[in-house]
Design brief:
By secondary structure, this protein is α+β, with helices and mostly antiparallel strands. 20% of the residues lie in helices and 35% in strands. The protein is built from two helices and four strands, in the order αββαββ. The two termini are 23 Å apart.
């Protein structure tokens, strides 16, 4: 998942590529640097930017294994 998120920032992947992991819900609750957001908003924020992911936590539903919550902290890289 980490590599896929980096690919979004590099514009080699899109939010739609994550639909199978989230059971189609791209509005999945996402905590970005301590602020509530959605996964779709995260993808828009990082698209086309060089980032370094500091931490990433995924929380899945035990029954269907779909990701229900994401917590991510990242910094923008200038190199």
């Amino acid at each position: 998942m980490l590599k896929k998120i980096i690919q979004v920032s590099e514009e080699k992947a899109t939010a739609d590529d994550f639909k199978p992991y989230m059971c189609g819900n791209l509005q999945t609750m996402t905590m970005i640097k301590g602020k509530k957001s959605t996964f779709l908003e995260l993808c828009e924020k990082i698209k086309g930017k060089k980032i370094k992911i500091k931490s990433l936590a995924l929380y899945k539903n035990e029954k269907n294994k779909c990701i229900e919550y994401i917590s991510i902290d990242y910094s923008k890289s200038f190199f």
